[in-house]
Amino acid sequence: MSEFLVADDLIRGFPARRGIGDLLRGGPRPMVRALNGVSLQIARGETLAVVGESGCGKSTLARALVRLIELDGGQISFDGMDVRSLAGAALRRYNRRVQMVFQDPYGSLNPRMTVGQILEEALQVHDMVPATQRPARVIELLSLVRLPADAASRLPHEFSGGQRQRIAIARALSIEPELLIADEIVSALDVSVQAQILNLLLDLQDRLGLAILFVSHDLRVVRHLAHRVAIMYLGRVVEVGPADAVFDAPRHPYTKALLRAAPSMNPPEPGAAPRRRTAALAGELPSPLNIPAGCPFHPRCPEARDRCTTEVPRIHIANRNHLATCHLLK
Amino acid sequence: MTALLSVRDLGIRIGLASPVDGVSFEVAAGEMLGLVGESGSGKSLTLRALLQLLPAQAATTGAALWQGRDLLRMTAAEIRRVRGRDVAMIFQEPMTALDPVLPIGLQITESLDVHLGLRGAAARARAVQLLDLVGIPDAKRRLDNYPHEFSGGMRQRAMIAIALAAEPKLLLADEPTTALDVTIQDQILTLLLRLKEDLRMSVVLVTHDLGIVAGTCDRVAVMYAGRILESGSVHSVFRSPAHAYTLGLMRSVPDRAYARRPLSSIPGSPPDPGDMPPGCRFAPRCRFATAACGEAPPPLRGIADDHQTSCLQAHEVRRAAREAA
What we know:
The complex is a heterodimer of chains A (330) and B (325).
Chain A: E1 3-15, H1 20-25, E2 31-43, E3 47-51, H2 58-65, E4 73-78, E5 81-82, H3 88-97, E6 98-101, H4 115-125, H5 134-144, H6 161-174, E7 179-183, H7 191-208, E8 211-216, H8 219-225, E9 228-233, E10 236-242, H9 243-248, H10 253-261, H11 306-310, E11 315-319, E12 322-325
Parallel strand pairs in A: 3-8, 3-9, 6-7, 7-8
Antiparallel strand pairs in A: 1-2, 1-4, 4-5, 9-10, 10-12, 11-12
Chain B: E1 3-14, E2 17-28, E3 32-36, H1 43-50, E4 58-66, E5 69-70, H2 76-82, E6 87-90, H3 94-97, H4 104-116, H5 120-133, H6 139-142, H7 152-164, E7 170-174, H8 182-199, E8 202-207, H9 210-216, E9 219-224, E10 227-233, H10 234-239, H11 244-252, E11 301-304, E12 307-309, H12 314-324
Helix pairs in contact in B: 4-5, 4-7, 5-7
């Protein structure tokens, strides 16, 4: 596997606001530890899905990879370059090759610019095509994401949520990126519209050879799209591997619980035993302000032992490319 | 089984638009009915109409019979006695439904006072029981917490505790897990199933997620553009969908067997509520549609035991569903 983007031991914390009591008592400012040593790789043309619940650090990871957030520690290398040291023109070149699309298609498009202006601006900033050819390129881009050519003269508010997400994707693609970072881009959409966007992503990847980092909490969508999957919990990757392996033979107790908790489309047989009455996973997500010692999952883990409460588990290799961090894997 | 609630030909008009039109369904005692549809299908409006919680400019037609009385035509005083007592409601975002400046305990005892006349130590003891019932640990201490001190999942539990205060016979749940993480969603759905069985309560669950319906409901009604297009037992509707829209919706959900292959999405977008198609409202987007589908709105008709559809092409749809399976 030729490594295209490699993230190694990424660390990022955010200082939290202190209440008046904490201020008076003094002491160090509490830190939200969003990324606690995240390592992963993406190969050219592949989709890596990053899955996790709120506070697991998946969006911080996505933003850190495009340098919207600076890291406290760790290395990112892209095509042999050290991403964290890029500045000026080199950073702009990097941002052309690695583009991000956000969850909220309402918040990420300028409401006062027509769709044509939004797309032309991207082309102009990155000097993609001569000014005279920009309108033609805009029409090409719109047809790439299956919007009509007359969309160029309209404003974002005239479109539905799914159409706006296509516009955001068209803008990201306008500068011919090699890696698309998609942060929950179908989460706000209805299922029939979501299917349209997923089909579009599959098709674009086929045609353009894009690599995609797909951040999502929806396991059904991830299963559909991903070649490989990384499961995150409280700022750490707890399991990573080929999608088939992670979904069919999950190793980490958290992955197993997530898969059990995801709603299935198959209702029970009539007259069958009553529906399951215990939840897949008990307990709440701990606050990222106060991450449990040892394995961060141990307070909720149905299989936790003494060792899990004190010792951070090392990476266990289940199979060549399938890794999990759990003491129970021997 | 006799119906606890019988909604007949419910229509909602807001200005010139009719976002809900000709909706009829029944809820039997002890059953969980899923009202499923995409944004703008009218599912939440339908639920709110039952307790007269629509905005003032909305007008309703039809009837919603509750123990022989029409909920839609009750006076303000009458509906207030039903709300929270016989029929309770929980919402998607508990933070907007809970009072942010009152402790959780007070919000529960308030409900106990209004509906059951329970006060003082007795009310407090009952409030602890209710928090226990919905799985809030350390309930006694948590009574004095404010909503902002609760996590999203705990707030939803607290809201369910308030809803259960007067032991309602019917719980209306409007997307109660949409804002929650998947493991917390699973906990809340498990809780609703347990409460439904232990308290013999009926539930109408509004959701956009077919998977949630499959996992929790006994019966389902599929809504689109303000109408119910198909309804029936969850088993029958999921095994053998008989409306082109239901089939399209099911095919839009990624299935592990078809990973990385194109999903059969539904082309186009739903109609404008001010300008509904004259016939079947799904016809303009439907790949099964014939000329007849565009003429008059087709009514629901029974096609099997506890299974109704309005689709004129139900036969073709079921054949397509079988072939794909």
